[in-house]
Amino acid sequence: MLAAEYEDDIEGIDACLCLLAKRENTSFELEFRKWRVLYVRDSLPKTNTDYVAGLIKLLEMWGKFDFPDDSPHVIQGRYNQIAPEDYYTEDNYKILLKKNQDWIHKEIDEIRRKKQ
Questions:
Q1: Hey, CA dihedral for 80, 89, 45, 63, is it positive or negative?
Q2: pTM for the predicted model, two decimal places
Q3: pLDDT per residue over 67-76, tens digit each?
Q4: Euclidean distance between CA atoms 7 and 87, whole angstroms
């Protein structure tokens, strides 16, 4: 069932992971984190992507997860006073892309520690 889900069908994948976690007697939260980090890694825009398109892609990607508290993505106007002209810049795109890449590495390290 999991293999047949669309990669961005968060609810469908969530349900499959829940069933698999129960069947394998493992933590759903850990299995979800594994899937999420892979999804984020594979969905990150490329460094050479147009910065406005890249920022929008990051926003859409984290929006699929309802902007979790551990997300490295900063959203213009959400819990901050960042002006659009400061947010939609190439420098900000590079900063946020780097934060997302750092988050991926940190998340993978944390998942590995939890498995041991």
A1: positive
A2: 0.81
A3: 998 999 888 7
A4: 28
Question: How does DSSP classify residue 44?
Answer: P
Backbone angles phi, psi at 103, to 5 degrees: -60, -40
Ordered by start, the domain boundaries in the chain are 2-115
Query: Is residue 36 within 8 Å of residue 65, measured between CB atoms?
Result: yes
| Amino acid sitting at position 27 | S
What distance in Å separates the CA atoms of residue 62 and residue 23, rounded to the nearest whole number?
28
Cβ–Cβ < 8 Å for 111, 34: yes
CA 11/CA 88 separation, integer angstroms: 30
CB atoms within 10 A of CB 96: 21
Tens digits of residue pLDDT in 65-115: 989 989 998 887 677 778 888 889 999 999 999 999 999 999 999 999 987
